[in-house]
Design goal:
The complex is a heterodimer of chains A (447) and B (218). Chain A has two helices and 32 strands. Chain A has 447 residues and is mostly beta strands. In chain A, strands 1-32-31-30 form a four-stranded antiparallel β-sheet, with no helix packed on it. Chain A has a four-stranded antiparallel β-sheet with strand order 2-3-4-5, with no helix packed on it. Chain B contains nine helices and no strands. In chain B, helix 2 (25-45) runs antiparallel to helix 3 and helix 3 (51-70) runs antiparallel to helix 4 (96-105). In chain B, 29% of the residues are buried. The chains are: A mainly beta (447), B mainly alpha (218). The interface between A and B is large, with 61 and 68 residues. Chain A: InterPro entries: PP2A_PR55 (IPR000009), PP2A_PR55_CS (IPR018067), WD40/YVTN_repeat-like_dom_sf (IPR015943), WD40_repeat_dom_sf (IPR036322), WD40_rpt (IPR001680). Chain A: This is Serine/threonine-protein phosphatase 2A 55 kDa regulatory subunit B.
């Protein structure tokens, strides 16, 4: 069974949860990004403390459809350290904003991880053999006096316990004045882009001391700044095409063949505002927090505060589909503005065959929208629902006062429990959902 | 109208909404305005101000101020005076205090960037951008000609402090100037100008005077 099946066909079951159990969350443990690699065998998370943890799916049971394999820790390393910018007297946070995997070319795995200022290319490689039998060195490393050597031997490789090593191969620094919010690897397998609030740069994966600026929306007079870049992504197949979203709810598609500096877009995607929904907070909630191309490259999805929108790349005037994530919050915007929740940046993701999209919400709820079946479901990531293979029960939020059994009223929602980061396995119905400091893995129920 | 700024504490959502619903629109707007100013202040106090958030807040603030102005506040020009030769500034240009606030919030130093620009094609802009990269220190100095055209009083001409009831604002401790960045200093004082009574406003004017002298070398 592939990644097909809508949300009503699929019954989602708890599989695993990673992270500390206690409610007292250490700031460094807050998960800030989640990403499957291209095969889905590896699952990477980044956290506020600058660490990357990679989980690997055990492959032994793959042939048995009854039980899906589990993800276990494969490698853990410190990607970024806190830095201090002496010129501006500012601390640079070590929080990992994004991780993106490179397509696998050889035995090793490569990923890009970035904090606010610096992107790093990490190589993750396995070592399961080591050379033994040196002539001038003991096994423990002590040197042997050459005068005592009477016979020579050729060192041989002998098996050892598997060791996974992560080493930084490239550091791409000093190219961003503002905070990096996105990185995206090009389908040409040679370049990638990095985007901050005002600029987008194009890099070659091998070259660290130079990058090309391809978008610059910084006005000559900073007093005129009213819009920032919020996310950017390369097209999955067309290596000359990328999009970037803005804090005003627009998406610009750019073609790098048109000009060196892509300040002029090829296409501008924007939906006219619904005048009946106008409020003080209209602009804030229209700010796009994430943009993702579909796997087939024909659509893109955007996430703003209250909704998910699917755009056909051939139609700029309005999205082809709009899904309300938590419309019951529309009447609560003032409170959400007051407690800063209105600035939360939710991400979104596609399933493998682009039939279902997923995004997070509050109270550790997350939502799935089946595009073909026109159905949606709300599920919860919590320890209560975490018995092995336990089927997740759909949740419902009651917007008005007439709360039914098992429903939750809006006022009971916990706005500290937010799911900002979710990821979907590229082929299978396996999803990774990050609460504040825990990573939940859910799978579809296989009969 | 008192308000609380929640910080990650689970609290009832309905408080703010209940307050909002009871109020007539102008007071609702005032509440949001107060929240906006408070958030912009705390944005500045953070170790790492978020440009994204600052821009959203500044836009909201500007929108509310424009609305209040259009509704028959004192008919002050939204724009500073320019010399007659220059074309008139468009009316949606942010008023100077907001602009100065935004610009100092958003001020960044480009000198560190090693980013290279590809050779510019025909029709692209001149070296203005590369000048920013090389020399851009404080944003405000890029517009010094704009400042020299102004009389100091003009900057504050369109602030009508009667619109802001001092009792509506919690007493905001003035954060000590951060570093030696002139823009940072200016920002703190501009914020003070918003939210304090006229006596401290006068004090701020004197300080601003001093800063202006440094920047404009007049």
């Amino acid at each position: 069974m592939g990644a097909g099946g809508g949300s009503n066909d699929v019954q989602w079951c708890f599989s695993q949860v990673k992270g500390a159990i206690d409610d007292d969350v250490a700031e460094a443990d807050i998960i800030s990004t989640v990403e499957f690699n291209h095969s889905g065998e590896l699952l990477a998370t980044g956290d506020k403390g600058g660490r990357v943890v990679i989980f690997q799916q055990e492959m032994e049971n793959k042939s048995q459809p009854q039980c899906r394999s589990e993800y276990n820790v494969y490698s853990t390393f410190q990607s970024h350290e806190p830095e201090f910018d002496y010129l501006k007297s500012l601390e640079i946070e070590e929080k990992i904003n994004k991780i993106r995997w490179l397509p696998q070319k050889n035995a090793a795995q490569f990923l890009l991880s970035t904090n606010d200022k610096t992107i790093k290319l990490w190589k993750i490689s396995e070592r399961d053999k080591r050379p033994e039998g040196y002539n001038l060195k003991e096994e423990d490393g002590r040197y042997i006096d050459p005068n005592t050597v009477t016979a020579l031997r050729v060192p041989v490789f002998r098996p050892m316990d598997l060791m996974v090593e992560a080493s930084p191969r490239r550091v791409f620094a000093n190219a961003h004045t503002y905070h990096i919010n996105s990185i995206s690897i090009n389908s040409d397998h040679e370049t990638y882009l990095s985007a901050d609030d005002l600029r987008i740069n194009l890099w070659h994966q091998e070259i660290t001391d130079r990058s090309f600026n391809i978008v610059d929306i910084k006005p000559a007079n900073m007093e005129e700044l009213t819009e920032v870049i919020t996310a950017a992504e390369f097209h999955p197949h067309q290596c000359n095409t990328f999009v970037y979203s803005s804090s005003k709810g627009t998406i610009r598609l750019c073609d790098m063949r048109a000009s060196a500096l892509c300040d002029t877009h090829s296409k501008l995607f924007e939906e006219p505002e619904d005048p009946s929904n106008r409020s003080f907070f209209s602009e804030i909630i229209s700010s796009i927090s994430d943009v993702k191309f579909s796997h087939n490259g024909r659509y893109m999805m955007t996430r703003d505060y209250l909704s998910v929108k699917i755009w056909d790349l051939n139609m700029e005037s309005r999205p082809v589909e709009t899904y309300q994530v938590h419309e019951y919050l529309r009447n609560k915007l003032c409170s959400l503005y007051e407690n800063d929740c209105i600035f939360d940046k939710f991400e979104c993701c596609w399933n493998g065959n682009d039939s279902v999209v997923m995004t997070g919400s509050y109270n550790n709820f997350f939502r799935m929208f089946d595009r073909g079946q026109r159905r949606d479901v709300t599920l919860e990531a919590s320890r209560e629902g975490s018995k092995p293979q336990q089927v997740l029960k759909p949740r419902k939020v009651c917007a008005d006062g007439k709360r039914k059994k098992d429903e939750i009223s809006v006022d009971s929602l916990d706005f500290n429990k937010k799911i900002l980061h979710t990821a979907w396995h590229p082929q299978d119905n396996v999803i990774a959902v990050a609460t504040t400091n825990n990573l939940y893995i859910f799978q579809d129920k296989v009969n | 109208m008192r308000y609380m700024v929640g910080r990650g504490v689970k609290r009832k959502l309905s408080d703010c909404e209940d307050q909002m619903l009871d109020l007539p629109y102008p007071q609702q707007r005032q509440l949001v305005l107060n929240l906006c100013l408070d958030k912009l202040q705390s944005c500045q106090r953070r170790a790492e101000p978020s440009l994204h958030r600052s821009v959203l807040l500044a836009n909201t603030l500007r929108q509310i101020q424009q609305e209040m102005r259009q509704e028959g506040g004192p008919p002050a020009p939204a724009t500073p005076h320019h010399s007659p030769d220059l074309p008139p500034v468009p009316s949606d240009r942010p008023s100077t205090p907001v602009a100065a606030l935004s610009s100092s919030l958003l001020c960044e130093d480009d000198v560190q960037s090693t980013c290279t620009e590809l050779p510019k094609g025909p029709g692209s802009e001149d070296g203005g951008k590369s000048q920013d990269l090389l020399f851009g220190s404080f944003e405000i100095t890029n517009s010094t000609s704009y400042l020299t055209d102004l009389q100091l009083d003009d900057i504050f001409e369109d602030i009508d402090t009667s619109m802001y009831d001092p009792s509506d604002f919690s007493v905001l401790a003035c954060p000590p100037p951060r570093g030696s960045s002139g823009a940072s200093l200016g920002n703190d004082y501009n914020l003070k100008a918003f939210s304090t009574s006229s006596s401290t406003l006068q004090m701020c004017l004197n300080d601003l005077d001093h800063i202006m002298e440094i920047l404009v070398r007049s």
